[in-house]
Design brief:
215 residues; mainly alpha; 7 helices
Length: 215
């Protein structure tokens, strides 16, 4: 009795499969292309939103005591060039995201689409690692400026030196800074993994689907 029911069930599913619409290669490709174009467009939009968010946050924090104290160091010769380089590189990545979107939105064959997907993935990964690297460099530049211009810290250094604890002071100071930067890097990587990682995984699935179609 059970075998008869199983046979009936198989026949039922086979009949349902026959009733399902059959999609052509071009129809499937267009679906994947549209999904990919939409994902790359969102990567571009999110990069702009992220840029605006950090710019607004920086402006809002400008009047905080710490920021005003930092401005009192008059280290513009270090801060401005570094900030300018950071903005130039960020604009470059945003431009690359836009160009990736433009290219993928007019792609007309599977091979080119696969190349565009790979290029987009590479650009996003480079963007993420640039932000992490820039954060570390900025952090240690801030430390250098504080050690050079902050009178209170200079007094602490002089006191530690007079007691023979200069090496220990620097080990603790840089150690705490390294831990803080590492924690911030992990937090940023987690955020990027949720936001950009989700989009890249979807893009990668599209790439694999096209790859199977081309075999």
């Amino acid at each position: 009795m059970a075998m008869d029911e199983l046979d009936l069930l198989k026949k039922h599913w086979q009949q349902k499969e026959k009733d399902l619409p059959k999609l052509s290669y071009n129809e499937i490709y267009k679906m994947i292309w549209k999904r990919s174009s939409s994902i790359v467009k969102w990567i571009f939009y999110i990069s702009i939103i992220e840029f605006v968010f950090w710019s607004v946050l920086s402006f809002l924090l400008k009047d905080m005591d710490y920021m005003q104290r930092f401005e009192s160091y008059h280290a513009e010769s270090i801060i401005w060039p570094m900030t300018a380089v950071g903005y130039v590189i960020l604009f470059y990545f945003i431009y690359q995201f836009f160009m990736n979107y433009r290219k993928i939105s007019v792609t007309n064959n599977a091979t080119t689409l696969m190349k565009d997907i790979l290029k987009t993935r590479k650009t996003v990964k480079q963007y993420v690692w640039f932000n992490i690297l820039y954060m570390f460099i900025s952090g240690f530049v801030v430390v250098f400026i504080q050690l050079t211009y902050d009178e209170e810290i200079k007094k602490i250094v002089d006191e530690a030196t007079s007691k023979g604890n200069e090496t220990m002071f620097y080990l603790v100071y840089f150690g705490v800074m390294a831990v803080m930067l590492a924690l911030m890097a992990c937090l940023i990587l987690l955020l990027y993994r949720v936001v950009y990682g989700t989009l890249l995984r979807r893009l990668n699935r599209n790439y694999e689907e096209i790859k199977r179609m081309e075999v």
